Amino acid sequence: MEKKPIPVEATKVRDDGRQRAKGAARVAFARRGPATRLADLEQAGALRVLFPRPEPGTPPCAVLANIGGGVTGGDRLDVEIVWGEGAEASVTTQAAEKTYRAVSDPAVIANRLTVAAGAVAHWLPQETILFDGARLERSFDAELADDAELLACDSFVFGRSARGERVERGRVFDRWRVRRGGRLVFADALELDGAVADRLDRPAVAAGGLATATLLLVSQAAEARLSGLREAFASGSSEAGASVFDGCLVARLVARDAAALRRDVAAAIGVLSGRPPPRVFAF
């Protein structure tokens, strides 16, 4: 894979005088004997990468930190993670990503993953919290080798219910594309634009739920893990379901609040990965 330098400015001042943040990070893991090691690291602008000491017998974990404290209109974050052949590692975030009200332009977040042969990749960011008037465009692109494994989780919280917040209006566009062996195996998109709260109240959308999550497992063992996941959902408090097709297990969850969603997502991660979520992924 050709490596290019990260072209990023720490900040950019627009013609209207508003300052906007930009950040980029690139992390590469490689197999070194029996263990996975950090092979490459670049970080710029508002993004930093932390590496807490892993628990004995567990693979390394990269923790993405946005030192800007959240994103708003005109901000941009670019993340690229590479798992080399046979590598196993997790990636999460230091905290929930807050997306604040935007005046005009959306915040843009682009995540790109490459998972080589025999590698096991866990992409487990904490939830994205949307504030009223937020505008967000986010993409997730993953390229997997035929026998690579990917567990990915993504969740949204539409307002902090404990503080009486509600996202009445805004826009979120979230696009997923996952390819295995060069073939598209999973494509998904979520778009809510305008009266967000009204749409979430609809029975066929979220039936009033304020927190949603999607989990994707691309693995040769996907079908074998389906029954255990459904058992975990049966004892949870979220409205949840899961199905398997073409080596992909996809699960959706909707909950009344973030705390309920976190508990159920944590249980699902445990079933699908065989271990608890990263330590910083506090529940």
From TrEMBL:
Biased composition (Basic and acidic residues): 1-19
Keywords: Chaperone, Cytoplasm, Nickel insertion
GO cellular component annotations of the record: cytoplasm
Coiled coil: none
Pfam families according to UniProt: UreD (PF01774)
Subcellular localization(s) per the UniProt record: Cytoplasm
Molecular function terms, GO-annotated: nickel cation binding
Stored InterPro entries: UreD
Residue ranges of the region described as Disordered: 1-21
Function field: Required for maturation of urease via the functional incorporation of the urease nickel metallocenter.
Cross-referenced HAMAP family: UreD (MF_01384)
Binding partners and assembly: UreD, UreF and UreG form a complex that acts as a GTP-hydrolysis-dependent molecular chaperone, activating the urease apoprotein by helping to assemble the nickel containing metallocenter of UreC. The UreE protein probably delivers the nickel.
Family: Belongs to the UreD family.
Name the record gives this protein: Urease accessory protein UreD
Species of the source: Methylopila turkensis
Name of the encoding gene: ureD
